[in-house]
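Predict the 3D structure for this chain.
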Amino acid sequence: MAGTRYVRYVIVAVFCLALVWYINSSAGPTTFSGSTSQPATSKPNAVDTTKQASGSVQGTTPNSNGLPPAVVNGPRMNATFVTLARNQDVWEIARSIRQVEDRFNRKFNYDWVFLNDDEFNDEFKKVTTALASGKTKYGKIPKEHWSFPDHIDQDKAAKVRDEMREKKIIYGDSVSYRHMCRFESGFFFRHPLMLDYEWYWRVEPSIELYCDIDYDPFKFMADNKKKYSFVLSLYEYVETIPTLWNTVKDFTAKFPQYVAKDNSMKFLSDNGGVDYNHCHFWSNFEIANANWLRSQAYLDYFNHLDQSGGFFYERWGDAPVHSIAAGLMLDKSEIHFFNDIAYYHVPFTHCPTGEQYRMDHKCHCKPEDNFDWKGYSCLSRFYELNDMKKPEGYEKEQN
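Done. Predicted structure below.
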């Protein structure tokens, strides 16, 4: 009896093995994710090069990690994401890339430029390349763009930092923060890697995008003749820019031809330009036209500010510097508020007002976290300047 049962088990086992062999032989060859073979859906516009360029450009990664191609048809703009980061920021910027790719770029595959005042290491390149769907490019910032200019009095600058540390002014004693603000104000758009692009989208470590973006903001900017955009606006720390507005007024007196006729002065000043109300667009998010920043008007503006020494004798941020330039030198119609790009950068959140929009675009932000209509926000001024109707339900988000 036991022998008969054993024979039955053997027959069943042989039959099962034969069936598995038949199925595998009929299915054809299998390519696993770890295979060195390239999948059919390799990224568009990938460049097969791993050479390291000399100087301030560290090369372009070929993007051979097999991410799917763009799923939205049509031409792309000459545009890129741009990130200023250091090697130790790798996991914070990885989070940001994942946010941008999931909510937008997996459908469009735009490039990504990473800039650093030091050389990027292999880990940073490997991680960021694996996450990005477009080409990734890595560049080192020239020393002259990340150092004290010759005209700066080092003793005076050090004294200012000591005083700001005593007053507990945020980043008041930081040298690197000042270099960053100066670089973002006057140089990033002139880096050799950035010269290939007309449009840029600035992305910083540890940001979050809360809603799907189903259209191309770069194309929207171009089609609607926009040159600068924002999602958050607020008041700058008064202690960091005591002489900035007077320096700007000296500039406009010297170059009145650069001031646009239909500008945004009412966003920047409550008394026709006599004083600055400290409103600015928060520049850790920007989608803008790099050619505008490369214009003679903006370069003259930056050089005038730079010569005054305010980046080091005070603590001028790139946000008010960009905002004042856009507010005075661009027509107000050339500045756009991206209400539909829901965004977080510590500690502020832009969450679109309107439940139906949030549902339609799969948003995961909390409406009560929205900064737009709080007392420290400057968005109401922008709406009033442009005669825009505030969205339904904004009153509930004012407190």
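Residues 70 and 108 are 5 Å apart (CA to CA).
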